[in-house]
Amino acid sequence: MPTSSRQQSRSPGERIDLDQAEAALVEQYARLVRLAYLVLPPAVGRHRRVLAAHGIVQRALPGTGSRLLRPAPRRVPSPRGARDRPGYAWVREQILREALAHERRPRWWPGRLPPPRVLRPGLPVVWGLRFFPRAGGTEELALDQALSKADGVTRAALALSALEGLPEPGVREVLSRLGVTDTSTPVVLAGRLAREAEGDPAALVRSAEFDPSSVRTRPTDLLRRRHRVRLGMALGAAVVAAALLLTLFGTGAATLPSAGPAPVPRGTGALDPRGVVDEKEVPWDDTSRVDFTAWPTRGERTGDEELLARALNAWARAARAVRGAAARGEHEGVRVTRAPGTPVDAPPRSPKLLFAGDVDGSAVVLLHDGQRAVRYARPLDGKGDAALDLVRTDDADVTTAAALVLSRTRAGTRYLTAPWVARSTTRDLLRPDTPAAALAVSRSGVSDPVPGAPAGGSCARLPVLQLRSSARIVENHSFLLADLGDLTPVHLTYTPLPGSGAPARQPREATGPAALLAWARLGCRLDAMRGLGVRSVNTWDFARQDLPEDGGRAVWACTRADTWRGPGDVLLSLRTPASSPAAPVDVVGRARATAACSRFGRHVVAGTHWRSPAGHWYVVGAGSRAVTALRARGAVSGVQRGTTFARRAPEDARVRLTGSLADGGTLRELSYEKG
Question: In this predicted structure, what is the pLDDT of residue 3?
């Protein structure tokens, strides 16, 4: 551990030029403050760490009369290699020594309070505001959590290595100067932290997450401050009254009125409404992560701590509600719904605030913790229960992070759109020839209500969102989103038929004529996926077949619904010629929790019974592009080369198809359940 005394010389008899030290501190002030912030114990909180880091650096130099620093003739410092001068190294050691001293507590000091050095008065001093560095991504958050579990010397070793760029011998030398007797252990632990970091440690420690010179501000608890002022005035009045009574009645005793219990904070740590990440300005067009981390904070009630506290506490108690334990107190009556596979535990750290405002008669809060999006809604008139909805959003992208549901009413679904959405429209998925209609969206991203599908199971219309992303992120394209009952709308895509001799095609946006025609036939089948935590649905036209007896040309398709948690369900269909562009397809089978029709299951074989216009029954089947022949076994047997199969058979004939693959393998007909 470092020594307790403040060593101010680098070696016996060596003196450091005062001007050199001053120049190094001024030139490298932001870097030195970041260094101190990294080494300070995270347990004291980000606000105190910011102030303590600045205070340590500003007090690094002693007075000009110090016997250890001697002034020298002033000269212009070199613009390069400033950190290589002895003055910088000396200042750095003083800062590290002071930062490490913050972690030591007297034995009698309460464990929940910051160390005495953090509480001692000194510049800078801030009243009425709290400071927080800007939040980084998931990699920075993971590193910050790892640093909070390490000791101060390990944090210093990592900072010297990643931020200062010192080699291992240099790190050991600096730690030795700080009085650390065992320099091997912290260097090894720091190396382990660097290897386990989710990214380049040098880039992570230089991010906004660890920059106390670029901070966000929030007011302190205004309600508690007002209560304290009132309490102080009441106590002052009581003291004056007691003094008057003593003056009037001599030594007679007087009883002061009780001030009552002190206000209790609404939450701590991740549940503190003052700690939510509130970013009004986010450079969404200058980032490599176009997802919910690039959303700004919007809404007229982002500063309403009472509303945020209700939302956070409802989130914290969601696990009990899901297990059937009734919530108590002011959060009684919160209905909790979650998409399948979504954890309901409280956020591990302060989440990001995406929206807070009044929408359609409810106070709505949208939060994001890096892995989940959460919506809290409470009726403004106090009638009815509050609602808490949770859904996974890991690995969201420009399309799946393009909108979140704000409210659902009889008028329709209202969305909050991403900042990169340049144009918003709606279209009826069942009417592919009808142009998309404009959807009004406010400057804060709140859309007008989008009418939903008719109630009662009818499929007369199916409105979906058609959004266009901004050219500022080089993703200038349109895409479709459908509301299937979850907090995040579902991304609809389309994979066209394989081309002759062309490689396998990739899913594309379902906005072209062929895609819209395919989805018009399949749209009514989306209702079966409602509320299942679906992330995206892709329809893959994998084979085309000329049906016998002039039955026309049909298309075999596999529609795959991928969930946020990973598994996907598939629906196999046969689109035969129809008189209406929205005529429902013939569903020939389903499979659940399968890799079929994904990039991990690129081959498929399907079959069904089909009746010709002349009334004859056939067994028909098809395989994907890698299938070279199809073989039937059962009531009907035979082999047909190519990707399709058709053979006369009774309506109830039991037949199984097997496909031969180009690489010599075989593929059985996909297991399915009729319906």
Answer: 38
Please determine, for residue 478, whether its predicted confidence score (pLDDT) is greater than 80: yes
Residues 159, 150 contacting (CB under 8 angstroms): no
Phi, psi of 459, deg, nearest 5: -125, 55
pLDDT tops 70 at residue 136: no
Sign of CA dihedral 591, 597, 601, 605: positive
| Residues 354 and 284 sit within 8 Å (Cβ to Cβ) | no
Strands 605-611, 617-623: parallel, antiparallel or unpaired by DSSP? antiparallel
Give the pLDDT band of residue 233 (cuts 50, 70, 90): low
Residue given tokens 């979906």 in the structure block? 464
C-alpha distances (whole Å) from 291 to each of 135, 273, 295, 564, 615 are: 15, 23, 7, 14, 53
Quickly state the pLDDT bin for 409 (edges 50, 70, 90).
Answer: very high
Closest by CA to 390, choosing from 573, 533, 272, is: 533
* Choice among 136-150, 622-636, 654-668 with the minimum mean pLDDT: 136-150
Helix or strand or coil: residue 571? strand
In the structure encoding, which two tokens stand for residue 178, read together?
A: 């700080």
Query: Exposure string (b/e) for 186-212, b if CB count within 10 Å is 16 or more?
Result: bbebbbebbeebeeebeebbebebbbb
Alpha helices per DSSP H over 178-331: 184-196, 201-205, 222-249, 305-316, 318-322
Q: Which residues contact 308 (CB under 8 A, 6 or more apart)?
A: 273, 276, 353, 356, 365
Mean pLDDT on 117-134: 65
Give 196 or 108, the one with higher predicted confidence.
196
| φ, ψ of residue 39 in degrees (nearest 5) | -85, -30
Q: Cis omega (within 30 of 0) on the bond before 124?
A: yes
Token pair for residue 378?
A: 């409470």
Per-residue confidence at 156, pLDDT binned at 50, 70, 90?
A: very high
Q: Which two tokens stand for residue 511?
A: 């906005």
Q: What are phi and psi of 259, to 5 degrees?
A: -85, -10
Q: What residues are paired with 275 via a beta bridge?
A: none
Structural contact between residues 566 and 593, judged by C-beta atoms closer than 8 angstroms: no
22 or 168, higher pLDDT: 168
